[in-house]
Amino acid sequence: MKALVLREHGGLDRLKVQTDFPDPVAGEGDVVLRVRATSLNYHDVFTRRGMPGIRVPMPAIMGLDIAGEIVAVGPGVQSWSVGDRVVVDPINRVEGGLMGETVHGGLAELCRARAHQLVRLPGDVDFETAAALPCAYGTALRMVRQVGQVQPDEKVLILGASGGVGVCAVQLAKAAGAYVIACTGSAEKAERLKQLGADETVLYTQEEFLKVVQRRHGKPTTRRLPEAGSPSGVDVVVNFTGGDTWVRSLRTLRRGGRLLTCGATAGFEPQEDIRYIWTFELQVRGSNGWQREDIHTLLDLVRLGRLQVPIDRVYPLDEAVQAMRSLEERRIVGKVLVRP
User: Fold this and answer.
1) Does the pLDDT of residue 82 top 70, yes or no?
2) Matching CATH topology for 3-132+309-339 and 136-286?
3) CA distance 77 to 127
4) Considering Cα of 126, then 129, then 135, then 137, what sign does the dihedral take?
């Protein structure tokens, strides 16, 4: 089969399209899928580069999010048949492991998955939309709703708003009745985010986001009862970039505000200043991934028209390296997909 293969960690030059990679075989409890679409996530960038403490067996086929059709069913598999349309929960919640990292993922014509990882795909949801959901949208759903508990009329600042997690977070926060401030890198991205529900935008490439947010929404105060109507910061910050944005994010929050984090695309060892945390009684809430029921919820939201899934571009498998480059260089709004 054709696959995008990684044989050692490093740059984009370590990725090669191979036409004779061995086809997967369905063992006990397995199915083999014909991949119809797989979406890229920044996790794929980390997998390619190599992550401390995580061993990736080589050669590796990346691609966490996979939607396709079953073409083979292994012994012991029940309730699934050849031809069924499915989306895969990338996390193996029984034996452990992650698609596209510790086991081969979706950047190939065929992919093997455990039957218990499958989610049935409704006929009115296309493969591209389904493949965009699990990792990015599932992470955003859990972070904004369950962990963040975003409420009506709260001010929510979202960093990295034009990526997959960010685009979903914008929509979910708006649906909760919040006032959404989206931080992004270009006027074109800002306009698209407004179409998706952002009430205002901040172009971090032109202005320092901390200064902009404090100018528009005020600085935090230590007074427990600030003067009525006086701006004193935002209620919630969504920050999955980390790096040098971390301390600045804390400084945008009102007294008692919440910082939500689910990742660190710009660095996981940021400079810290914990004085802001105790002085203003801030809450830092971590959110880790998603649950299986979150994928079902997302499919329902899409079917009901309550959630948009903007897809920046769909690349053929032969151009998967270019797709990865567009993600890594942050040139996209929403999701970038590969279709074998």
Assistant:
1) yes
2) yes
3) 23
4) negative
Give the closest residue to 313 by CA, choosing from 295, 329, 327: 327
Q: Beta partners for 336?
A: 313
- Placement of tokens 């919640």 in the chain: 93
242 and 266 Cβ atoms separated by less than 8 Å: yes
Distance CA(249)–CA(256), nearest Å, equals: 14
Amino acid occupying residue 287: S
The Cα 232–Cα 254 span in angstroms is 5
Identify which of 86, 132, 122, 133 has the alpha carbon closest to the alpha carbon of residue 294.
Answer: 133
Taking only the tens place, the pLDDT of each residue in 228-285 is 556 789 999 999 988 889 999 999 999 999 999 998 888 888 888 899 899 999 999 9
Match domain 3-132+309-339 to its CATH number in 3.90.180.10, 1.20.1330.10, 3.30.565.10, 3.30.450.20.
Answer: 3.90.180.10
Other CB atoms within 10 A of residue 68 CB: 28
pTM strictly above 0.70: yes
Task: Provide CB contacts within 8 A for 182, sequence distance 6+.
Answer: 158, 161, 162, 166, 170, 190, 193, 194, 198, 200, 201, 202
Q: Which amino acid is at 314?
A: V
**What homologous superfamily does CATH list for 136-286?**
Medium-chain alcohol dehydrogenases, catalytic domain (3.90.180.10)
